[in-house]
Amino acid sequence: MKLMSMLGDVVGSLFKKPFTEQYPFEKKPAPESLRGKLTWDASKCSGCMLCVKDCPANAIELITIDKANKRFVMKYHMDRCTFCDQCVVNCRLKCLDLSNEQWELAALSHEPLTVYYGRDEDIQFLLEKSARPGAEAEAPCA
Tens digit of pLDDT for each residue in 57-72? Predict the structure, then answer.
């Protein structure tokens, strides 16, 4: 009896349209409440570092270049982030947000999972400083 029941399901399935979606080719819009990639607005940031202190995964580093002129670089580790939204909730100046548009974050290597936010010249200065020999022994900028 079980074999006939299963055979009926198999024959019935032959004439039905597949229920699965062809994901990379057919995309649905992301939900409004989806938590994707972290975005940072440097113009609003005061450098209080609440986001760094509240991040349970240590996914955020705020490096101070010049605090008087509000020059900061944020180093965001997507591979560590749990997308818990704790940094966004605790940012009193609302300079952080989790994008619901940038959520496809898979990568084949580790390099694209670290994102630098800030002014281009500040990021370049930071990268050059870290590339110098003996830079590991120096104290961090922050």
Answer: 999 999 888 888 888 8
Average confidence (pLDDT) over 66-89: 89
Among 43, 44, 82, which residue's Cα sits nearest to residue 60? 82
Is 139 contained in some domain?
no
> Residue 23 falls within a domain, yes or no?
no
- pTM exceeding the 0.90 threshold for the entire prediction: no
Interatomic CA distance for residues 88 and 60, integer angstroms: 12
Instruction: Tell me which residue of 121, 37, 130 sits closest to 73, measured CA to CA.
Output: 121
For residue 38, the domain's CATH number is 3.30.70.3270
Q: Residue 78 is part of which domain span?
A: 29-131
Q: How far apart are CA 88 and CA 84, in angstroms?
A: 9
